[in-house]
Amino acid sequence: MKRALAILLFLSAPAAAGTADHGTLSCVLENDLFYNVDRHYTNGVRLIRVPTRDAETPRWAVALARIVPWFPDRGDIRHGYAFGQSMFTPRDIALAEPSPRDRPYAGWLYGAIGLGVETGRQLDLFSITVGMVGPSSLAEQSQKFIHDLIATTEPMGWHTQLHDEPGIAAAYQRSWREWVTTTWSGAHLDFTPHVGATLGNVFTYANAGLTMRYGRRLPHDYGPPRIQPGQPGSADFAPTADFGWYLFAGLEGRAVARNVFLDGNSFRDSHRVDRIPLVGDLQWGVVLSWRELRLGYTHVYRTREYRGQENRDNFGAFSVSLKY
């Protein structure tokens, strides 16, 4: 908890330095409890801060954006910060000795910094994420605290979790907001394809997908934020004068070369399973916005990630974004 508070204070420091530097705060919660299960990717939480467009872009962000060869030469340069924790468990958390054919217990505590260039119809994002896998992620303490709080099954196998390992992941993603049209009812419809790749000892994969949105007063953003790996979104958004809403649905496919939470530790012997190299997500949900507040809910359906996995995964993602 002390580590978490220290990182949050660090991320908030730029806002306290000057009254003009305000922006967007977003919180994302992903959990399988929404669908009455408790397994595999069981919980993720992520806090995101994006400074306002009116704030002066730091010199390091401008310089880095101009040297990244695939970034557009023109566009608004944005940057942001994130802090989060994810946890993974086998199918049956009541077993003190989990099956060797089931996925390992694992946690991931991380901080991230992101840089983006937006042209109005295209968004390029580059991020660096660093953190810790293993007991130092505090995932065991977090899950046991929550389970004790809600008086549900105590997870018994955390002593078998992956060992401590520093983690890093560099990710790039490009999204195009295209094919915007007005339907017969006066609502709007748009499609946003995306491609990307992530490289690191935590995740290494290439991804591509498409998101469709339909609703009144579609904002110029790229959907609600999600936790990696998952469909892209945007922590930032444009406030609306009145109530707005839209429905969305999306598909993403990933060709996975490494997932530490399935492949096990990089440099030490640990529990691991036989990873499936091709994984797909299907998602759908709703976004509600009113002035400086945006709420989003997403249902995610994920294909099997390792051989021997009995069921495909379903979990929910709830996000709150606030202009301050």
Q: What's the structural blueprint in terms of helices and strands?
A:
Blueprint: H1 2-17, E1 23-31, E2 40-51, H2 59-67, E3 76-89, E4 106-118, E5 122-133, H3 139-149, E6 165-176, E7 178-182, E8 188-200, E9 203-216, E10 240-259, H4 260-263, E11 278-291, E12 293-302, E13 313-323
Antiparallel strand pairs: 1-2, 1-13, 2-3, 3-4, 4-5, 5-6, 6-8, 7-8, 8-9, 9-10, 10-11, 11-12, 12-13
If you had to describe this structure to a student in words, what would you say it looks like?
This protein is mainly beta. It has one domain (about 1-324): Outer membrane protein (Lipocalin), CATH 2.40.128.140. Helix content is about 10%, strand content about 50%. The protein has 4 helices and 13 strands. The chain has helices spanning about 1-15, 60-65, 140-150, 260-265, and strands at about 25-30, 40-50, 75-90, 105-120, 120-135, 165-175, 180, 190-200, 205-215, 240-260, 280-290, 295-300, 315-324. Strands 1-2-3-4-5-6-8-9-10-11-12-13 form a 12-stranded antiparallel beta barrel. The longest helix has 16 residues, at about 1-15. The two termini are about 25 Å apart. Residues about 1-20 have low confidence and may be disordered.
Named CATH architecture: Beta Barrel
List unreliable stretches of 5+ residues: 1-21
- Could you name the CATH topology? Lipocalin
Could you give the order of strands across the largest sheet?
Answer: 1-2-3-4-5-6-8-9-10-11-12-13
By DSSP, the count of extended strands is: 13
Strand coverage percent: over 45%
Helix count, DSSP H or I runs of 4 or more residues: 4
Gross morphology is globular
Largest pleated sheet:
12 strands, antiparallel, barrel
Number of domains: 1
Mean pLDDT: 86
Q: What's the CATH class, please?
A: Mainly Beta
Q: What structural class do the secondary elements suggest?
A: mainly beta
- Separation, N- and C-terminal Cα atoms: 25 Å
